[in-house]
Design a protein that fits this description.
Keywords: Membrane, Transmembrane, Transmembrane helix. InterPro entries: CBO0543-like. Helices cover 79% and strands 4% of the residues. By secondary structure, it is mainly alpha-helical. The longest helix is centred in the middle third of the chain and has 27 residues, at 62-88. It has one domain (2-7, 29-147). It has a two-stranded antiparallel sheet. It is built from five helices and two strands; from the N terminus they run H-H-E-H-H-E-H.
């Protein structure tokens, strides 16, 4: 179970990110990934503190359970978001699409018991817990374009 979790939320996203995305745009992962990891750590800590969710396989070690998400799938997905926006434009569409995809992925984890919700939390709230950081990372991208790129 732990090995599958490691492969699905950390190893596989980084393999895809490095083998595909890094070849397409060498800047997006180093610029976007760390910033989104910070957002993910922050949001997950609030969610754990208020009892909105638990992540397995280590529900008693809350930060450790989310570590693979925060350093794996989330920064890679955020990097893809910015890559798609840069390539195809339509930022609002891609922010909503990536939010929907990430919510769907988490819903699959909830269905299989790898994530559980508490204190009234549900997939509707999850959608907004991804919409806000994806929107912020898009604003961060605009900021970076103005000062660096």
């Amino acid at each position: 179970m732990i090995f599958l979790h490691f492969v699905l939320v950390f190893l596989l996203p980084w393999i895809v990110g490095i083998c595909h995305l890094y070849k397409k745009d060498k800047q997006v992962i180093p610029l976007v990934g760390p910033a989104f990891s910070i957002l993910a750590f922050t949001i997950n800590e609030f969610g754990f503190y208020f009892g909105f969710w638990e992540v397995f396989p280590f529900p008693e070690q809350k930060t450790l359970s989310a570590l693979l998400f925060n350093l794996g799938v989330y920064p890679v997905l955020a990097s893809y978001l910015i890559y798609f926006i840069k390539k195809y434009k339509h930022p609002v569409l891609f922010v909503f699409l990536m939010t929907f995809v990430t919510t769907l992925l988490e819903s699959i984890y909830v269905y299989y018991g790898m994530v559980s919700y508490g204190n009234g939390w549900n997939s509707f709230y999850t959608f907004f817990s991804y919409l806000v950081p994806y929107g912020l990372i898009y604003l961060y991208h605009i900021y970076l374009k103005r000062i660096v790129l």
